Amino acid sequence: MPNQRPIILLVVLIVVVVLAVGVLWWIKSQDENGSVNTNAALAIDLTSFKAMAQQANCADKRNDLYVIDNHMVFWAKEGACFDASYSYVLYGKTPQERFCQSADSVVGQMKNCDNQSYQEIFNTILNNKDEKDLGLGILRTIQRISLVESVNTNANTNTSVPSSKSCDQDSDCGLLICGGCYSNEYLKTAPADLPCTTYDGYICQCVKNRCIEVKPDKPYDFLSVKNEADCLALGAEWVSVGKMMRCEIPTPDVGKTCTKASDCIRYCGQKNVNDATGTCSAHSGTSCYRFFNENGKLDGVCID
C-alpha cells in the first residue's frame, strides 16, 4: 500500500531519534571509567570555582572555566609571568576534587593525574584547549565561563594587588613550597600545591601589601620577582647583576665605612684602587668589582 510508506518512514525516524536520545543520555550518565554516575543529580559548586579563578595570580592572558557534562570542570589559566605562566586543571564537581593538572614551573612542565581514569580525556582537552568543544565532540555539553582577574586596591598603595597576593602584614601570607607566597584567605580554597620545591627555605613577607617570597638571610633580595614592573611596584629597584636583572631593595647600611665583609649586609666595596677602607654596597655586585673579604684583604670578582 503505497500511501502508508510515508507513515512507516515517519515511525522509523521517530524510533531512531528516541534511540539516539537514549544513547546520549546513557553516555552522559557514565563517569570516565565507564561506571554509572550516581551523583549526576548533584550540582557543580560553580560559586567556589569562580571564587578560586577570580583570586588567581598570573591570569592576565586567559582565565576560563569549562563545565563539562555537569560533572567536570576544566580550568585554563595563562599569564605573562616568568614562571607559572600557565595552569590547566581538570576537576570533579568541587575544587577539592582534582583529577589532573598540567602547569608551568621554574623546572619546566609539571603534569600529573591523581585519578588515572581521567588521563585520556585530560590529554584530549590539553591537545584541544583552544577549541570550543575542547576536542570532546558533539556528544558532550560544554559551557565556557570567562573571568577577569579580581584585584584588591589597598588605600596604602597606588598599586593594584591581585587578591590572591594581598596582605597587610607578614602573618597574612602563607607559603606553598612549589607555588610561592599567597594570602591566607586565598590558600583556604587554592588548588593543591604541585610536587616541586622551588621555594623550599623561603619565608613570606608582606611588601607594599603584596605577599613576596624571600630568603631569611637575604630579606632585601626579592629573588622570586622576575619582571621590572612588579619590582618597581614593590618600591624596589631593578638592578643588573652581571648579565642578569634582579629585584632588590637598597640596604640600610649603604655608604657606611667598612674594612671587612661582615661589616655590611651585602659587601664591602672598594671605590678607588688605593683606598684602605671601603663602603657598604646598596646592591649585589655588578660585572667586575673589588671588595674587602672577611679577613680585611682586598679581593675581586667578575659576574657573568
- Strand/helix succession: HHEEEEEHEEEEEHEEHEEEEEEE
Instruction: Describe the global form.
Output: elongated
Q: Largest beta sheet, briefly?
A: 6 strands, antiparallel
How far apart the termini lie comes to 93 Å
Q: What is the strand content? A: 25-35%
How much helical structure, as a percent, in the residues?
Answer: 10-25%
Describe this structure in words.
With 304 residues, the protein is an alpha+beta fold. It folds into 3 domains: 46-146, no CATH class; 161-247, no CATH class; 257-302, no CATH class. It contains 5 helices and 19 strands. The chain has helices at 5-28, 46-54, 119-127, 184-187, 228-233, and strands at residues 62-68, 72-78, 86-91, 98-103, 110-113, 142-146, 151-153, 160-162, 173-176, 180-183, 203-207, 210-214, 237-241, 244-248, 257-258, 268-269, 278-280, 288-292, 298-302. Strands 5-4-3-2-1-6 form a 6-stranded antiparallel sheet, with helices on both faces. A hairpin with a 2-residue loop joins β13 (237-241) and β14 (244-248). It is elongated, with a radius of gyration of 28 Å. The chain starts with a helix and ends with a strand. The relative contact order is 0.08. Residues 31-41 and 149-159 have low confidence and may be disordered.
